[in-house]
Amino acid sequence: MKMNEGIEWAIHCCSLLAHLPDDATLPVGALAEFFEVPQAYLAKNLQLLSRAKIVSSAKGPGGGYRLARKAEQISLLDVVQAIDGRDPCFRCSEIRQRGPSAVAASNYRKPCGIARTMLKAEKVWRDELKKVSILDIKELGIQETNPAQARKAEDWLTHVLRFP
Amino acid sequence: MKMNEGIEWAIHCCSLLAHLPDDATLPVGALAEFFEVPQAYLAKNLQLLSRAKIVSSAKGPGGGYRLARKAEQISLLDVVQAIDGRDPCFRCSEIRQRGPSAVAASNYRKPCGIARTMLKAEKVWRDELKKVSILDIKELGIQETNPAQARKAEDWLTHVLRFP
After folding, report:
1. CATH, domain A5-87+133-162, list 1.10.10.10, 3.40.50.970, 1.10.510.10, 3.40.50.2300
2. Which of A33, A164, B27, B95 shows the greatest Cβ crowding within 10 Å of its Cβ?
3. CA-closest candidate to residue B101, choices A97, A30, A108
4. In chain B, which among 117-156 make CB contacts under 8 A with chain A?
5. What are the residues whose beta carbons fall under 8 Å from the beta carbon of B47, sequence distance 6 or more?
């Protein structure tokens, strides 16, 4: 089972946007430059984040993306579900209702125990993602990023915000 | 993110095989009949279970599949990984090493904090799957299966084992 690659980009993007001063925005072109990723690809994922009210966009010259909520109010689960949707990974196709042992459909009121068990395990994973916010990710980045890289990122950001 | 459909079949199959008397086996044709699924499709997944030493097969007339270990020694994680492999769902493409803030590769010794966080959340899901055995699933089935269905399944199994 492979997670949508866009999730990795989206988390990195949100973490960068969490560094912006209030009311500043970054155009999609600048984000694509910073992450060295095709702009059309990033734009598609930013639209998904926008639809989930994780980022918002200001139109027109000098416009661009910013976080739509405070970084501490955006969880990794929000980002994952914005990109990948809310469907469970395990989908029950009601195998138990097939074959020679099947009985009338009215006898299957309670969901299948296998499905319930699989979905319960997924829920634990989602609950874990819900515990981590974009602010946590930003702070982890601040702690761990190599100082030379942090300086280069800051210089780049200052330049882009001054000369959009 | 969608889980391989074969996982659902594989768990149901293992749970059925856990009902067999010692040393009895079920041919793939009988399993395909019981679950009303194309035999070739089921055979492919049984091969994956066999490779993971979850089931074993007896060759020749009267041959077929049985659990290779006790049902309490097979976890749902074993089954999921047999069908879907052991790769993590989240794959880090080292986005942090791209773009204008990148520094020399030697500065990225510690894995990216975003990847670590995502993988930690997945691990919680896998640990949850590891806690549940095929015996647990079998017992849940015994508790919850409609008595008429349980009787039909038992009759079918008795017949198939007697006239393979």
Report:
1. 1.10.10.10
2. B95
3. A30
4. 117-118, 120-122, 124-125, 128-129, 132, 136-137, 140-141, 143-146, 148-150, 152-153, 156
5. none
